[in-house]
């Protein structure tokens, strides 16, 4: 498996530093984004973890019509550009349609394809053709082995610019389950695999007009995923999840991030050592 290079910053993959992709679900304000970016940059610097800031400029897949979606493309990309410049970290956000790819690629280091859109061929090809690294989320409705078809759509254009992300599988109504077998299966496609620890505890539509969540299970599932051998972790992180405008019930409190990451890093280091000894 080859690593993926985020130009100007770092590489993601085997024998590379562990990666955290983190930030609020959606851009609520520039001030909130800066608070979270500053906190996570400091934490990751202390722990020796690579860090990428994530927040959505537009959440086009909210449950209800009146749900908060974010500031939109132009304002959102400007906020993300400022984060990148001022904190010296790469930035990633969702693209939901082909028309967003061009403007987003001018600012973002990584284009994220939402799970619901993982089979949208035109969007995948456009993202690959942008020249940027693509982060592709496995759909809740797709088996891990069937993700090879989406992978091939991108790799036909962008061979070494793809990361895969696991975020759980639909398990009945308003519930998700994480099959840890998905992580090595998707890693066998030759791409770094990131585990989305916060969307995996989401209860889609579970709060009626919005999604619920069980954030108390974030540490448990994150530990299991790191032990299974992943290359990085994705978490939606908020200073006060109870007041978050999107995905609060499944967001990680900013204050709890460092102790969790420190523990996960110990597990990751152990697994890396065991893998190296096995190969030796």
From TrEMBL:
The gene is kdsA. The keyword Cytoplasm applies. GO terms for molecular function: 3-deoxy-8-phosphooctulonate synthase activity. Pfam families: DAHP_synth_1 (PF00793). Keywords: Cytoplasm, Lipopolysaccharide biosynthesis, Transferase. GO terms for biological process: keto-3-deoxy-D-manno-octulosonic acid biosynthetic process. Belongs to the KdsA family. GO terms for cellular component: cytoplasm. HAMAP family: KDO8P_synth. Its EC number is 2.5.1.55. It is found in: Cytoplasm. NCBIfam families: KDO8P_synth (TIGR01362), PRK05198.1 (NF003543). It catalyses: D-arabinose 5-phosphate + phosphoenolpyruvate + H2O = 3-deoxy-alpha-D-manno-2-octulosonate-8-phosphate + phosphate. Gene3D superfamilies: Aldolase class I. Signal peptide: none annotated. Pathway: Bacterial outer membrane biogenesis; lipopolysaccharide biosynthesis; Carbohydrate biosynthesis; 3-deoxy-D-manno-octulosonate biosynthesis; 3-deoxy-D-manno-octulosonate from D-ribulose 5-phosphate: step 2/3. This is 2-dehydro-3-deoxyphosphooctonate aldolase. InterPro entries: Aldolase_TIM, DAHP1/KDSA, KDO8P_synthase. Residues 12-270 form the DAHP synthetase I/KDSA domain.
